[in-house]
Amino acid sequence: MSIHFHPTIPIIEDNHDANSSSSDEDEDESENWDDWISDSAIQHVNCRSLFDDKVGSVEDILAYDKVTYNFDINEVCTKLSLDVHGRIRLINFIRQTKPSPANISLLTGKESFFSSDDFLRPVLEDDPLLQYEPGDWTDSEDEGSIPTERRIRSLEQKLAQTQRDFEEYRKIVNHHFSLGQIAESSSEGPSNSVSSQPKRDDDSHYFESYGANDIHAVMIQDKVRTSTYARFILGTPSVFEDAIVLDVGCGTGILSLFAARAGAKKVFAVDASNIATKAEKIVKANNLDNVITVIRGKVEDIQLPEGTKVDVIISEWMGYALLYESMLDSVLVARDRFLKPNGIMAPSQTRMMLGLCDASEIVKERILFWNDIYGYDMSAMAEELYQEAVIDVVGSHTMLSAPCIVKDLYLSSVTTRQLDFTSQFRLIASVDRRTKVTAFILYFDTFFTTSGNPVAPETEVQIIHENEAVIAEVWPLGGRPAPQRRMSHQHKKGKSLEGGEVAKAEVVTSFSTGPKSIPTHWKQTLFLLKEPFIVDEGFVVHGHFHCRKSDSNSRELDVEVHYTVQDVGNQNESQDVVVAMFKIQ
Ligand code: SAH
Known about the structure:
By secondary structure, the chain is α+β, with helices and mostly antiparallel strands. It has helices spanning 24-27, 58-69, 73-79, 84-97, 101-104, 134-137, 148-185, 204-209, 213-221, 223-235, 237-240, 254-261, 275-285, 327-338, 360-366, 469-472, 501-504, and strands spanning 2-5, 47-48, 55-56, 244-248, 266-271, 292-296, 310-315, 339-346, 349-357, 390-392, 404-410, 421-428, 435-449, 490-491, 507-512, 524-535, 540-549, 557-566, 577-584.
């Protein structure tokens, strides 16, 4: 779904937007609402206009917006029958996406942001406009005719109601934005973190699906994935020799087997699905039950013997679009429960990459084909398809821009709270003729480092091509064991390392799920645009990328892309902001 807004200020230039960056600093911004100004002071503090940088008291600003922009927030709220939360969402929505007053008048009250808790979060810190009761400020027509005492009583009642409404609002916001923290400190995991609400079960179906054979076959046969883990584990004795290792979500136990082969002295292989039974058999069949202990259970719930702490956590937790499945939340709980202070997370870093894409083939296959079925118009079948992210493989020729990082996750420090995020993006069209952008494409890159530290920003991910030696060297052909020689790596400085240097140098092992690499089972995630747009060389597409766990299932994701297309010669002219919303489910 997409909505158009015509901004009065180009969105990219907004530095006041607390949600507009994915930097850790912004994300760690205090969500402590105790410093909210008291209600009685609201009239006197500085309030910012909804449409420009003018500041003044709430009353002055409301009057200013009315005179300058012919916009009355109270009128709009009344017209749309908004309650206090609807009003707050609307104010935050205006502040964040900067629609023109004319476009606001097109709202019906049914837009999805009116039910999104994201827009309960203040865009401007201590925004006084969020905290006032409209009745206090509007000019009631028959005010003069009401006796003063009745009017005071009525105002007192309104004030009390406002205070109750805001108390509720603060609770919602505090609750919503501290869920991550609760989940971190809870042993019950993200789906069960709200004790006052009936527990929703986002786990049973999830773990059942991992009990099946096929899903593990698909993962093991994903050569890019499995061979990169193998290269890292088997190729870095400095990390694994004599180490105590925790394999979070061991599945068949493949990563634990690699770790044992790499010289780990103890491996705890944990899985909450039925596959754990198979892992146990596999470990025994390979005579490694003296090293690997399979533990069946959620990593949030299990205990390791006598308070063991581990040197390394290995886990293959990545889902579609990286964060689908929300398994990373569990890995972070495992990190905080079991990893030694200087322990290593493998992988150590993942990056979400966004780009412009010509997905016209996929649009044809999945959407346009409904237009003519044996001569019948069945386009009704395609109506909702634009709201669902498509998981499919596209070729590298479909990329119409260099990708831009929308989330860089450092596994050693990221918190669950940071997994719901908003970040800015800026994509520059790299086309040699006018081309239609039919989708945003999202994929992720994964990095392993021997120190567990993040890679240097300029480090490029290794692109693995068909028949490349890195795959052959760990992938036994015809059932023969892999050749026993040192694995090749991509080195940080791009140099090949000889002899003694290996142990000292930081070695980076990586793989990409992008269209340049051999396709992986994660494929790519495509956000098809209901309203494709044309770009020429150098056009800039910029905006905000929002990603959060879905309210209805914490393992699914809601994504919004707010974007503006800017012609090369027209950098200063303000353009429409388009909001496109998607579900990854
Ligand atoms: N490591 C295996 C399997 C990866 S799939 C491999 O690389 O092939 C992810 C596995 O993690 C699944 O088997 C799933 O059941 C398990 N898993 C997911 N969340 C978990 C949790 N919180 N606790 C334990 N196991 C979990």
